[in-house]
Give the backbone structure.
Amino acid sequence: MRTIDWVDDAVEIIDQTALPDRTTVLRLSTVDEVIAAIQSLAVRGAPAIGVAGALGVALAARLHADDGSALADAIGRLRAARPTAVNLARGVDRAAARIPDGAPAVLAEAVALLDEEQTAATAMARLGADLLGELCPPQPRLLTHCNTGALATVAGGTALGVVAELHRRGALGAVIASETRPLLQGARLTAWELTRLGVDFRVAVDGAGPFLMARGLIDAVIVGADRICANGDTINKIGTYAHALGAHRAGLPFVVVAPESTVDRDTAAGTDVEIEDRGSAEVVGFAGTRSTPAGTEAVNPAFDVTPADLVTVVVTDRRVIRLDRGERI
């Protein structure tokens, strides 16, 4: 299934904030609705928000065809909706480049990106499954973090697409899905997708990952990325760095799976990336219920930086990059 698509002149998404209790399709017919969906995480995942940004530009080109100022403002707000994942700005810029050719050309470019991300997921799944067959013992037990399936892309996924491909091949042992605080993308979204796939899995608290690796219960860690810098530093959901340290200590492969659209050669290193802080509300409570004393403030970075020397290999839809062997992005 496509978790984001263009349907009858609007953007349709599966509302990720409603999962796993309800599968709700949101129909976004204005730029403001697309921006709100991105910022609220109704649509999330680097490839998915790149597509959402491009489709948002297509909406803007139709709605503001005769108002250049309003069109430029809409594009700027789309581009800035979330700062860390490179895909959003790239998707917006790619669609916006077709504005001189008219609204139909903008839509065609956005839909082309949609199709390309789906094709990329298929390629990543194949390459990643082949690689894990080489790096791991038969029937590997994998730890994954955050959500990297169809919800984070268009269909298939990045890291979770590899997991699904191993499952289809009968070559998967089991999966531990890190819950991914504070919004539980692993416990809510990855668990939902793994259930639909029929994959044997368990959920673990984020902090358990390195201990489970040390106890020999994990054969490899496989994650996605929101940006991969020119030096190989990987920006991904907060908690990824801790899993990478655990994998390094335990001598386990740490595998990053992301499309070429997430590789950012224009950013030298992770220190150059703006890390989004989403404020205290997501940390001091959950689902409207406060879990800390009234007035408590929190620091809430949405992402962290895993240094390149902790990454074994990067798998994209076009290539396998063995950082552990000195290969370069």
Summary: The mean pLDDT is 97. Residues 103-135 form the longest helix (33 residues). Residues 57 and 326 are 39 Å apart (CA to CA).
